[in-house]
UniProtKB/TrEMBL annotation:
Keywords: DNA damage, DNA repair, DNA replication, DNA synthesis, DNA-binding, DNA-directed DNA polymerase, Magnesium, Manganese, Metal-binding, Mutator protein, Nucleotidyltransferase, Nucleus, Schiff base, Transferase, Ubl conjugation. Its cofactor is Mg(2+); Mn(2+). It comes from the Eukaryota. Interacts with POLH. Interacts with REV1. Interacts with ubiquitin. This is DNA polymerase iota. The chain holds residues 2 to 484 of 746 of the full protein. GO terms for biological process: DNA repair; DNA replication; translesion synthesis.
Length: 483
DNA sequence: TGGGGTTAT
DNA sequence: ATAACCC
């Protein structure tokens, strides 16, 4: 028994619809034979299997924690384990554990509806994201130990590019071990594995690494989650959700079409959001097949060439986007929503609260934000989603003081924010806001070297000859830049 | 609908 | 600065 480990806990028949759906037999492409594959394994290593870098096929894993906020709460307070638990933000149950789901509670359900459905539901407040954020980064850091190429998606999902790690393991493999190679977890659509097919072999090794990742997450952090292994991010993400709590699935290339054809609507395709789905609907496109067969020219005219080409490739399961290492966050923000804020002092008090938390966070991070932004949402019956913002550079004398606790940086920063506020809101007129948010961004690691100095030319991101693949510091230019 | 995040235009 | 996307 090599590497595979399956913390298959939660067992007890608590499968979701997704699982049942996935179980139904669908056509399995050209499963089985792989025409071009070399003959059976021969002694002398596996070098023939690995056509030196010529393989453009990748191995990607998508790791998706089970009801993340609820898990963190149950770790904080173990007495909550076994009870139906919901995490509340304002009047919403934003997520809940599987006990609660069995009793009919859904994500983003109104608290009233949830209590009605499930009177025994235990609710904890989840408006302060601090512990979730911290645990989230612990997960990402754990995954980075396997391979440094980890991309975060929200707080509870990560992509990891396993291609190189798989390649290394394959080169260590002895040829007599090849016939004993096994998958860890489920194989999508129960497809047959062909050990003569190098692509299958690589994905199987990927599934074993995925199992090790989940085992490490459970042993070191106490967290369970799902994983999907496939040849690109789109497919890895779609397949990770096939068997749902705390299980993993690998997708072999022959069944990628059945995976995407099983989506009942284009909206379910990651990358096609609310707006694009509406526009597609107006064109009569609702199924994945509709999108696959729609005229590319017309689609480009309707959506622009960039979106059109990208989503049409997605509809075929094609996604060449790289796993981009997220690194440290690009921005820190805190927001608060409420029924009504209609006076300047009220706004100022909320803004002070938001800023105070942010300053603590940015202080712990160590880098310095060079831009500050204020975001508001105005009350309006329709157009609920729209926000307005104003941003400006942070004066350099304030940036310097940011790490040094005792100096009062709050007052001048609040003054700046209130100027931004009055720039957006005419305080002489009645107003009604439902959200305030403060964002610190444009983070820089060091006091940026002055032009003309030795340091300037030694700083990769500033020097004209810089073309390093490593992104130790990225200094994105913005038209709101200071200097 | 919350309280976050990202990239593209 | 906004708009789209993701969770």
């Amino acid at each position: 028994e090599p590497l595979g480990v399956e913390p298959e806990e939660e067992a007890g028949g608590d499968e979701e619809e997704d699982t049942a759906q996935a179980m139904e037999r669908a056509e399995a492409g050209e499963a089985g034979g792989s025409p071009g594959a070399p003959g059976p394994e021969e002694p002398g290593g596996l070098a023939w299997l690995v056509p030196e870098g010529s393989s453009s096929s990748r191995v990607i894993v998508h790791v998706d924690l089970d009801c993340f906020y609820a898990q963190v709460e149950m770790i904080s307070n173990p007495e909550l384990k076994g009870k139906p638990l919901g995490v509340q933000q304002k009047y919403l149950v934003v997520t809940c554990n599987y006990e609660a789901r069995k009793l009919g509670v859904k994500k983003l359900m109104n608290v009233r509806d949830a209590k009605e459905k499930c009177p025994q539901l235990v609710l904890v407040n989840g408006e302060d994201l601090t512990r979730y954020r911290e645990m989230s980064y612990k997960v990402t850091e754990l995954l980075e130990e396997f391979s440094p190429v980890v991309e975060r998606l929200g707080f509870d999902e990560n992509f990891v590019d396993l291609t190189e790690m798989v390649e290394r393991r394959l080169q260590q493999l002895q040829s007599d071990e090849l016939s004993a190679l096994t998958v860890s977890g489920h194989v999508y659509n129960n497809q047959y594995i062909n050990l003569h097919d190098i692509v299958h072999i690589r994905l199987l090794v990927g599934s074993q690494i995925a199992a090790e990742m989940r085992e490490a997450m459970y042993n070191q952090l106490g967290l369970t989650g799902c994983a999907g292994v496939a040849s690109n991010k789109l497919l890895a993400k779609l397949v990770s959700g096939v068997f749902k709590p705390n299980q993993q699935t690998v997708l072999l290339p022959e069944t990628s079409q059945v995976l995407i054809q099983n989506l009942s609507h284009v909206r379910e395709m990651p990358g096609i959001g609310y707006k694009t789905a509406k526009r597609l609907e107006a064109l009569g496109i609702s199924s994945v097949h509709d999108l696959q067969t729609f005229s590319p020219k017309i689609l480009e005219k309707e959506l622009g060439i960039s979106v059109a080409q990208r989503i049409q490739k997605l509809s075929f399961g094609e996604d060449n986007s790289p796993v981009t290492p997220s690194g440290p966050p690009q921005s820190f923000s805190e927001e608060d929503s409420f029924k009504k804020c209609s006076s300047e002092v009220e706004a100022k008090n909320k803004i002070e609260e938001l800023l105070a938390s942010l300053l603590n966070r940015v202080c712990q991070d160590g880098r310095k934000p060079h831009t500050i932004r204020l975001v508001i949402r105005r009350y309006s019956s329709e157009n609920h989603c729209s926000r307005e913002s104003r941003q400006c550079p942070i004066p350099s004398h304030l940036i310097q003081k940011l790490g040094t606790g005792n100096c009062d940086v709050m007052t001048p920063m609040v003054d700046i924010l209130m100027k931004l506020f009055r720039n957006m809101v005419n305080v002489k007129m009645p107003f009604h806001l439902t959200l305030l948010s403060v964002c610190l961004c444009n983070l820089k690691t060091l006091n940026t070297p002055k032009k003309g100095t030795i340091d300037y030319y030694l700083t990769p991101s500033l020097s004209t000859t810089s073309r390093s693949g490593k992104r130790s510091f990225k200094m994105k230019d913005s038209h709101t830049e200071d200097f």
